[in-house]
Amino acid sequence: MKTKSSIPVFIFVIIAYVLHEVFFQLEETEVIKIRCGQQLKGFVSNSRDGRKFFQFLGIPYAKPPVGELRFEPPQRAEKWTGILDATKYSSMCPQLSHIFQLPDGHEDCLFLNVNTPRLPKNGDRGKPLPVMVFFHGGLFVHGDGFLYRADYLMDEDVVLVLVHYRLNSFGFLNTGDDVVPGNMGLKDQVMSLKWVQENIKYFGGDRNQVTIFGQSAGASCVHLHVISPMSKGLFHRAISESGTALSPWSIRSNPAEQSARLARKLNCPTSSATDMVACLKKLSMQEIMYAHREMLESFLNPEILLRDSITIFVPTVECGNITADTFLPAHPLTMLKDGYFNKVPWLAGANGQDGAIVSIAAVRTEKSSQLMYDNAMDALPRILFMHSNENVTRLKDYYMTKQLDIRDEKSFNKFTDMITDRYYMNGLRDATRYQSPDAPVYLYIYNHKGKFRPQNAMIEVQRKYLPQLDVAGFLLKTIWYQHILGLEAPFYGVGHMDEVAMIFPLRFLSYVGQDHQDYEMSKSMVKLWTSFAHNKKTLKFRNVTWNPINPRMKSLKYLNLSLTPSIIEDPFTERYDLWASVHASPNL
């Protein structure tokens, strides 16, 4: 389909952003006061459809976790003096840059951004608005609030909060005891939710109507808050987009071993957890992040899937003494089975081909396809987080053919289904079975064929040259083919993160304006998400009524999210039965 403009939207956004920063003065808000008389000022923006809203950036919600506070639970932020300038973005938490693979960000990163269409005036607060708190994705190694803009959601009556939290080992180191019990990134999120409870009324928000939502790793975080006793009472509804606490990548089963491996790579002692952590605290952020580089390599080079690497730091069960500061006292599956979770409404789902983000990386070239097939019994247990070769063989026989080729639609789709089922659908179904008898659960499958297709970068960035050149080549090719020639990008399915572009403008990547082909879908998605936050008695999507799961029904029903929506019977029953028969439990 020919685009209406030959100028790439994201190039226009970049140019506009730079010009705005250089030549234009922000329209600042009045100074507002929050808890304990602290003062701050933000700036005025306009939503997609022209509504004025107010942004407050870089608000500290916890002390900087530096020095002796590294790997420690977050502490309440100290009171600032004067007027906080909340017009500039704060630093991201330590991570490796996508292109240059160099350490980026700072440890002083525990900030949040607040966006609101309404500020209380002269003590007259009016009716407070529901609050939506977003936790970004990025497999617990990447991400920050800068990517996600508020323009779409600010057309609706909600207050939006975006949270930075610690990533990598800084947020998820676990020594397997009480020295560093783990989950500091999740405890950061808890601290941010406490901040919301204490302060959101000053931004026109209702502390009694808080919806947490997230995508991918952020979706898993959301579900973990649904389960955690530490988060009880801090939120009232939850949305998980493509990820649950039962996704096999969500929980690490051997954290002490993992921490020791990192320490050995950094020449720190491992015989004593106390000595090991003391050593790690003395190292620079850059030294620790360089030790994580092999993790990023595994994303960009499928051959590394076939050899050992330092595993990614993710949430873990806390094995020390259970206290008020324990976020996850047992495995999420155990807690769900025992009924130990927060009984709140949960809206959750996945994209039709979510697993393509992995399958593309594995079979994007003829060499990698052959390598994957020839070494399937070595690679699949790692990719699928499974240990039994007998069970893996059954899955291989069902999902994989000898012609494992991204150019062969049938074989590629079956391989993608295997990843989608294991990473997203199985955990979603299991969690629904345990939660739906006690709280409303709404299930969806996102099937809209939108213009934004981030997984296509996995095809183009093949590391034949420097990664910087690969990425630059992909961007130039995208500009030429899609935006100048008006050709449609290759379609490998409705993939991971596609739906995010309907909820948020993604800075420098995607903007769905009023003349965009996805505008109607985006507006409908935003309306649905915010209706859930408003606790609407009946949810509707483009005139299709969406009811919660009936726990007494054997077959689950999903809302098919597309421009022609419908309620569909569970399309994964046969495949789910196969996974159940091979006892593919979460990563215990």
TrEMBL record:
Give the top-rank taxon of the lineage listed in the UniProt record for this protein. Answer: Eukaryota
Per the record, the similarity remark reads:
Belongs to the type-B carboxylesterase/lipase family.
Q: Which UniProt keywords apply?
A: Glycoprotein, Hydrolase, Membrane, Serine esterase, Transmembrane, Transmembrane helix
Q: Which InterPro entries match?
A: CarbesteraseB (IPR002018), Carboxylesterase_B_AS (IPR019826), Type-B_Carboxylest/Lipase (IPR050309)
Domain Carboxylesterase type B intervals: 29-579
What the entry lists under PROSITE patterns is as follows:
CARBOXYLESTERASE_B_1
Q: Does the keyword Oxidoreductase apply?
A: no
Coiled-coil positions: none
Q: Which residues cross the membrane?
A: 7-26
Q: Which residues form the signal peptide?
A: none
Q: What is its EC number?
A: 3.1.1.-
Top enzyme class of this protein?
hydrolase
GO terms of molecular function: carboxylic ester hydrolase activity
What protein am I looking at? Carboxylic ester hydrolase
Please give the Pfam families that the UniProt record associates with this protein.
COesterase (PF00135)
